[in-house]
Amino acid sequence: MDLESQAEGKKEAEADDMLRSGPRPIVPYSSMFCLSPTNLLRRFCHYIVTMRYFEMVILVVIALSSIALAAEDPVRTDSSRNNVLKYMDYIFTGVFTFEMVIKMIDLGLLLHPGAYFRDLWNILDFIVVSGALVAFAFSGSKGKDINTIKSLRVLRVLRPLKTIKRLPKLKAVFDCVVNSLKNVLNILIVYMLFMFIFAVIAVQLFKGKFFYCTDESKELERDCRGQYLDYEKEEVEAQPRQWKKYDFHYDNVLWALLTLFTVSTGEGWPMVLKHSVDATYEEQGPSPGFRMELSIFYVVYFVVFPFFFVNIFVALIIITFQEQGDKVMSECSLEKNERACIDFAISAKPLTRYMPQNKQSFQYKTWTFVVSPPFEYFIMAMIALNTVVLMMKFYDAPYEYELMLKCLNIVFTSMFSMECVLKIIAFGVLNYFRDAWNVFDFVTVLGSITDILVTEIAETNNFINLSFLRLFRAARLIKLLRQGYTIRILLWTFVQSFKALPYVCLLIAMLFFIYAIIGMQVFGNIALDDDTSINRHNNFRTFLQALMLLFRSATGEAWHEIMLSCLGNRACDPYANASECGSDFAYFYFVSFIFLCSFLVSPGSCASVCCFTHLIVHISCWFLPLTHVTTQADSMF
């Protein structure tokens, strides 16, 4: 038995090694109990799955499927566009079903290493495809619950996630995010524990006290009966008195958790604070400033959560991002800083600086002058003074003051023009334009000269309005970035960080895409009302509008009001085939989106930048000793 178990263990280890390395061979186990590794059908499926362009074709189908999802009309469900997209969805689902079936035949189902259902990504594919197939079956039968069909169709938004496992770098970023959430699980538990404690305290303090009467003259619930005259509208109308509850309250722990989470995002908390200090007793309306001492509760809450826990949570995620990046090269003998510095040295492109060989020529003397530190300091001083002059402009200035600023602008433009001329003489035309900074300086000078000429012409010709040329004046400030070694290194670090952002941005874009499609499917048919947060400027009617709404929510701008406007029992668009729209799913939808944006978008971007900040000192040690000018006219610097 020991020999058999050892042989079995060795066989599984060899199978795992084969799965991890090179082109994947066929799994050395029977698939579905009847298809051996030599079975012709299984070998044919394995051949298709391992074809060179198979994954690329699936990626293209995923992209087309995602575009089709974004193009759907959430209001007119029976429109011709949706009918065309429905047949396209049949094709996409057929392709994904074919992919799933041949992979099941190739890999087997579950009982051996490398089987289909032992990979979480394959399980995700199975859920998405099965949901689409069941939705098609339900839509073909009359009398089925329409909400069930809509819920199953929402699973289609998970299709873009199939791209993660097919792009190694994107998968590495995703794994880093998942692992970071695992590592901060302890701090998340403490976070939820303290949130629960504050929620329980809030329930004890404010339960049943966030009610009010629509007639402000009535304080007690028993008096809030009958009708009253409403003078706030253009016409005086008799309105029924109603005993209402504020949108955010503390009547139970769940509502307290939602209210406190909203407060922690910095949205709507002044109004919640006002309702808290105005709260009196149960079955009694608010009284302004009734218990001002309760504001201490919110001060303590803000110190504990937004100022402490949230920052610790974000910091731990950033640290985990960096640690996960180090694990990739854990077997290397060099540390992270040394590897990064060597990578920089290998990929760096040495720049050249021209130097005239004839030291007696006028060109050499000009070159000596323009590369001297005094000249550089003078140019920096002129840029600083030009900045001050740009700040001196204000509305309705006297004519003499405007004339003085115009003359100063001409003086600075002349100085920067002279700088360009001297450098062209010193370096030569070709060598001058080899430097991107010199090209930028030259374009800025040309734009500034054009600005001066157009300004003079515009005084006599009102039809010429090229005010955008004044941007060239502000562009001179960018010249400061090339002055000074430290500034250039910081600028280099900033540029390098963008190279690490694409896959982080792609993951964030995928998050926005999924939530935008879900929003269109669930909230797209809500009637537009300018008195609510779902209006003609802010809605889920189209994919672009949904993205803009989510971007607004991600910035924290009144996301809680949008959430309230998407709740159930809302009026539907006249063209929608429904009597009631919206859903209480909005609570989970917006809270989860804000949570993911707060703890993924910002930490992910910061982590990408932080990965390059450690290079500054090491690049300095490598870079400065190579700064010299050779007598051959070309040198490293």
The gist of it:
The protein has 637 residues and is mainly alpha-helical. It is 62% helix and 2% strand.
CATH structural architecture of the largest domain: Up-down Bundle
Strand order of the largest sheet: 1-4
Basic shape: globular
Low-confidence stretches: 15-22, 613-637
- Number of helical elements: 23
CATH evolutionary superfamily of the largest domain: Voltage-gated potassium channels. Chain C
By CATH, the topology of the largest domain is Four Helix Bundle (Hemerythrin (Met), subunit A)
- How many independent structural domains? 5
User: For the terminal residues, how far apart are their CA atoms?
Assistant: 70 Å
Q: Which CATH class of the largest domain is shown? A: Mainly Alpha
| Beta-strand segment tally | 4
Could you please describe the fold and organization of this structure?
This protein is an all-alpha fold and 637 residues long. It has 5 domains: 2-163, Four Helix Bundle (Hemerythrin (Met), subunit A) (Up-down Bundle); 167-210 and 249-331, Orthogonal Bundle (Helix Hairpins), CATH 1.10.287; 214-245, no CATH class; 372-483, Voltage-gated potassium channels. Chain C (Four Helix Bundle (Hemerythrin (Met), subunit A)), CATH 1.20.120; 489-623, Helix Hairpins. It contains 23 helices and 4 strands. The strands form 2 sheets. It has a two-stranded antiparallel sheet with strand order 1-4. A two-stranded antiparallel ribbon has the order 2-3. α4 (80-107) packs across α5 (120-139) and α11 crosses α22 (586-613). The longest helix is centred in the last third of the chain and has 39 residues, at 485-523. Residues 15-22 and 613-637 have low confidence and may be disordered.
